[in-house]
Each structure stands twice: as C-alpha cells, then as structure tokens.
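Before the break, one more example. Copy the sequence into your notebook; we will annotate it together after we see the structure.
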Amino acid sequence: MQHHLYIHGAYVGANSSEVFETINPATGEVIAEVAHASEADVEKAVISAEQGFAVWSTMPAVERSRILLKAVTILRERNDELAALEVMDTGKPLQEANCVDIASGADVIEYYAGLVPALQGAQRRSGCKHLLYFKTRAFGRLCRYWRVELPDANSHVEVCTVFSSRQCNGI
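Here is what the structure looks like once it is written out:
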C-alpha cells in the first residue's frame, strides 16, 4: 500500500517520487510505503498552511469551535481503528493507544473547542513554553486583571485576579 502526501486538501505524489517504508516493529512487516516529501513539497505545504491560517484566523470563534468539535467526534468514533494503526506503527501496547493516546488527544481538542469562543482578550508569548492571555475590565476605580497560562496541549489553566487601580491605566 502506498500513501501520498496530503497538501492543500488533496492527495499528491511527492516531487521526488521517493518513498519510505513504515515497518511494524513487532513483526517487521511493512505496513505501508509513504511518499517522501522534498523541500519543494514542504514549501507547498507551508504555503497552504499559511493560506489556511489566513482563513481560519478570520473565521468566527464559534465556527472554529464547531470544526474542532467535529474533529473530536471523528477521533472518538474511530478510536479503535486509530489505536490499532498506532500500535502497528509504534509497537506500543494497545491499552495505551486505545485508552490514552486517541482519547486524551480528543479531550485536549475538546477543551480548546470550548475555550475558543470565550477568548476575547489579548494574548502574548511568555518565554518559549507559555501563551499568556490578558483581559482587563474596569470596575469603577478598580479593575480585574486575568492571567491565563496555556503552556501546551496538555495544559492546566491558571487564573488569578488582582485588584489595582494601576492596572486600569488607559481604560
């Protein structure tokens, strides 16, 4: 079985016509031959991703949330099939792939699908592992300052409230 690259919504052959074998580590059996992307193929994929991001980033948050939730549904419906493929590809135990990998991936996407419509503040990078989310609201002479850390896909959310009139400058 040979698999092509998936670029800009279509399956395409690699420019190089080269392939590599994906081997089941438990049996040594070749699972599939996968197209080997050339530098030009990667450049096409990057351009496509940039175009997709331009569309995605202007899409209403509720619509982005619906798309993410559809992905969650697909992952959960195909959990057993995806877990079996993961086991063949990596050799990991079925229990781990079936109950952890696909399920936790769906959980993380579902979390962000719920979070997306609620984001209305500003986001800034803090170092290389964190994305900080700020929202400032006036409460008379005081304001509420929210700081939400989203370090990675398996993140926790830390929210703190600080009251200080200095936080409200410019509001």
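Residues 1-58 form one domain. The two ends are 61 Å apart (CA to CA). Try to locate both features in your own notes.
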